[in-house]
Amino acid sequence: ELRFVVNVQHDCIRGKCAPTALVAEVQERTETSRQKPTLEHSEDIHFVLNIFILHHFDELTTLIPPEFLRP
Q: What is the pLDDT of residues 11-20, one digit of tens each?
């Protein structure tokens, strides 16, 4: 049963992700001559979920182990 959907962010600090390439910056759908680094995620098992900004915080906390609720 699907109860709600959340958006999570990859935990690059824990995964030790690093910049691997430079790509052109895009401005108003046009590539510019400026370059910016892009990240390659080193793994796909660690994520960050900021539950304190969610509208269904109370329901979500019943599904998460207490040790994950500590800062």
A: 999 899 999 9
| Paired tokens of 49 | 């979920």
Q: How far apart are CA 31 and CA 27, in angstroms?
A: 6
Residue type, 17: C
Tokens of 23: 């790509």
Neighbours of 32 (CB within 10 A): 11
Beta strand spans in the chain (E): 9-10, 18-27, 30-40, 47-48
- Per-residue pLDDT tens for 36-60? 999 888 898 888 877 666 677 777 7
Q: Report yes or no: 38 and 20 within 8 Å, Cβ to Cβ.
A: yes
